[in-house]
Amino acid sequence: MATNNSSGIQCEHSTDTRTEHVFKLIAYSVILFGSLVGNVLVILVVVLNRHMRSVTNYLIVNMAVADLLLTAFNMPVTIKVIATRSIDWSVVLCKIIPFTQSVSVASSVLTLTAIAIDRFLAILYPLKRYVTFPIAYYMIAVVWIVSIAVSSPFLYAMKVVFNKNTKKNSCLEIWTPVFSENADKDFTVVVFVTFYVFPLSTMSVLYSFVIHNLWVRKVPGIQTPENQLRAERSKKKVLKMLLAVVVVFALCWLPVYITQFIAFFGQKRFPCGPPVTLAFVGYFLGHANSAINPAMYAIFNSNFRKGFRDALLCRCRRNRVAPLVTKPGPVVGTESTVLRQVTLRAGSKVSATSDSVVP
């Protein structure tokens, strides 16, 4: 099908083969199911087991809630778009879907940053307890307040416009008349720096200090007790997981930002918008990160793995699972067009556990 863009250029919209269509439906259904089950299990394991209730684990639960927000609101709409190849937008749906995704990714990256700070302080200053439960609750409240505030512009900018080609309502990001025509580009850059560059840079710096503390720094002439060596080995295993999830986050969300920059800054080279395949892969990977987080807990940590198994077998009992922390304290619409019409901002969704996990 060929349509005209705003410049009058004929744009050919690709049509998936039946095999590709079925594959996309199955793939998205898998990550929706995995995210729903995995993040619910994370919450259950921490809430139903008293020894799992720690500052770090509460922050992890907060990230699971953010992932569930994305799973409940955005993934079903994306699956509907893939299944029907189109969607007739209502005003409420047009504003809520971008808003909830933005809130989810913003709260995830802010929570991840809080976890990185907590781990940095816990490892470099083990004798002091900086992040207590009251401070953690305050941090969680601030995370959601800031996330909602940052995402609120979508409630204004997302507007329903009748599409003469599809004969349906399209959901477009239109900042005028209150803001300038370039507001979409400015907002793209601000969100990219705030929720991708800054958190990655912050985590890189903090975990560099942690790596130096655990691997590099040695006190000459002092023998380390065996129990301390075991604790350090445990911390190193967890740190490897933290580094792995940071890399996974960066890989999952980078294609989304590439798609956004093509949509807003690459009109001359891509007059018809980002390639449909790139847009789909980008948002699929970003959404898949919600399902990857719980899986990484199970892969890297035996306590979470045991907790998941007990929960699935209905064997959850208080105090049954060993302590995790031993230290106190989419763009959616027609498959070919809406991915570039409704450009949602993405954030970091990476998960972490305590430095003192007993594997």
From TrEMBL:
<feature type="domain" description="G-protein coupled receptors family 1 profile">
    <location>
        <begin position="38"/>
        <end position="297"/>
    </location>
</feature>
<dbReference type="InterPro" id="IPR000611">
    <property type="entry name" value="NPY_rcpt"/>
</dbReference>
<keyword id="KW-0675">Receptor</keyword>
<feature type="transmembrane region" description="Helical">
    <location>
        <begin position="137"/>
        <end position="158"/>
    </location>
</feature>
<keyword id="KW-0812">Transmembrane</keyword>
<feature type="transmembrane region" description="Helical">
    <location>
        <begin position="187"/>
        <end position="210"/>
    </location>
</feature>
<keyword id="KW-0807">Transducer</keyword>
<feature type="transmembrane region" description="Helical">
    <location>
        <begin position="238"/>
        <end position="258"/>
    </location>
</feature>
<dbReference type="InterPro" id="IPR000276">
    <property type="entry name" value="GPCR_Rhodpsn"/>
</dbReference>
<keyword id="KW-0472">Membrane</keyword>
<dbReference type="InterPro" id="IPR017452">
    <property type="entry name" value="GPCR_Rhodpsn_7TM"/>
</dbReference>
<feature type="transmembrane region" description="Helical">
    <location>
        <begin position="103"/>
        <end position="125"/>
    </location>
</feature>
<keyword id="KW-1133">Transmembrane helix</keyword>
<feature type="transmembrane region" description="Helical">
    <location>
        <begin position="59"/>
        <end position="83"/>
    </location>
</feature>
<comment type="similarity">
    <text>Belongs to the G-protein coupled receptor 1 family.</text>
</comment>
<dbReference type="GO" id="GO:0004983">
    <property type="term" value="F:neuropeptide Y receptor activity"/>
</dbReference>
<dbReference type="Pfam" id="PF00001">
    <property type="entry name" value="7tm_1"/>
</dbReference>
<feature type="transmembrane region" description="Helical">
    <location>
        <begin position="278"/>
        <end position="300"/>
    </location>
</feature>
<dbReference type="GO" id="GO:0005886">
    <property type="term" value="C:plasma membrane"/>
</dbReference>
<protein>
    <submittedName>
        <fullName>QRFP-like peptide receptor</fullName>
    </submittedName>
</protein>
<feature type="transmembrane region" description="Helical">
    <location>
        <begin position="25"/>
        <end position="47"/>
    </location>
</feature>
<keyword id="KW-0297">G-protein coupled receptor</keyword>
